[in-house]
Amino acid sequence: MEYSNNKLSLIYGAAVVVSTAVGVGMMSLPIVSIGMWFLLSVAVVVLTAIYMLAAGSLLLEVNMNYPVGTGFHSMIKDCMGNKPTYFNDAMMIFNGFILLYAYITAGTDTIKVYSETLVGFEINSTLSALLFTAVLGVIICCKPIIISKISCSLIFIMLCTFAYLLIDLGNTVELSNIIDKEQSLFDSTIPLLPYVILTLPFFMAAAGYQQIIPMLRNLYKNKPERVMKSIFLGLSIVSVFYILWMFVIMGNQSQNDMIAKVNAGNTNIEGIVSLIGHNSGELNALLFFFVQVAVITSFIGVAKGLLDYLSDIMINQWGLSDRYPRLLVLAPPLLCSLMFPNGFLIAIGFAGLAGAIWGGIFPAILAQISRKKHASNGYVTFGGKMTPWFTLAYSMLIICSMLLSSFELLPTMPQLQESMTLKD
């Protein structure tokens, strides 16, 4: 079925945004949000969505000054020169690689678990990683409309599974686990600000999608308003997903109980599933399936965005064959997953740090330069002159958060029980 420029549904673009973003957050956000708990987590989700919408809009505004298919490498090189371009290349590639590394480590567990269930024996980690990477590698080489349709199908499966999980877990939610009625909003917020700041890189990584903007522009045939509508719809779905996910998780156990479980080392996929599954075999199996579908959809979106970026460099700039960017997208994260199979949560924090640089600081600066360099193309991001400054300031806050955390200047989860009075 063919679609005209104006008839292509917004859901296709939104599906690609959702597939790129939803995945990593399903596993990381409930853990990193333990310190600030639910209400502040909702606030950070909303603020992150606004930030991501602003950053994406700035990138789209700049991209509209160039031919369809132009990637960020070419835009930055034209506006800022070689050195900033190479630095941004390094940050974007690092961000993509580290996310794909995290997804492959998660996908390896999937192959191992399901191979034992289906064929009666567990495939080793190396073969599991190869199978997972090979199958999804074929998908990301398809045409954008095919990828969008695959993403729509996966998201439909996610929605059905998610609805069942919400009903099942929602029946056992206790609001006393969510809200402490004895504390005022001020009293419960101010002492938790260090824990809020700690989470910012993780929330940023969990909502990242900017690398697919050239693909969305191609999908909607130079219609920036439709691109932005699809992004807004996608980010709205992502935000609702994360808020509901944390609601049912945090509503089913006290803050102290969850801290104790995480401190016991339950931070891999199977540990996270058992963390919220109430020791129910059926529920654990469904939770595991849901998380894995989320990982697969996110892998496809991130890998496709990174493939487009590397193709812009290696094909458009260097004149190489398309097999080189395809190989480069998959090989480094695959090798890292084989060498370091347990670095999932740490990787997500650094992905947020790199993402704040290439997906936040550079769009803010690039938009300012582009507005002076190019005549208006008819599309200007919402907020006008304020949007680049907001994006830049929030990006710097994310970077400071990761640096403070790296130097142990922010509280970590093992310290929560000692430094806070928590409600049982």
Explain how this protein is built:
Helices cover 76% and strands 0% of the residues. It has 424 residues and is mainly α. The longest helix is centred in the first third of the chain and has 38 residues, at 82-119. Helix 2 packs across helix 12 (224-250). The termini are far apart. It has helices spanning 10-21, 24-32, 37-63, 72-80, 82-119, 125-140, 144-170, 175-178, 185-189, 193-206, 213-219, 224-250, 255-263, 269-276, 281-317, 323-339, 344-373, 386-406, 416-419.
Which terms would index this structure?
mainly alpha, globular, disordered N terminus, disordered C terminus
Summarize the structure.
The protein is mainly α and 424 residues long. 76% of the residues lie in helices and 0% in strands.
Low-confidence stretches: 1-5, 414-424
User: What general outline do the C-alpha atoms trace?
Assistant: globular
Q: So how many helices?
A: 19
* String of helices and strands: HHHHHHHHHHHHHHHHHHH
Instruction: Quote the average pLDDT.
Output: 83
Task: From the alpha carbons, calculate the radius of gyration and give it in angstroms.
Answer: 21 Å
Query: What structural class do the secondary elements suggest?
Result: mainly alpha
Considering DSSP H and I runs of 4 or more, what fraction of the residues is helical? over 70%
* Strand element count: 0
Strand residues, percent: under 5%
Distance between the termini: 56 Å
How would a crystallographer describe the biggest sheet? none
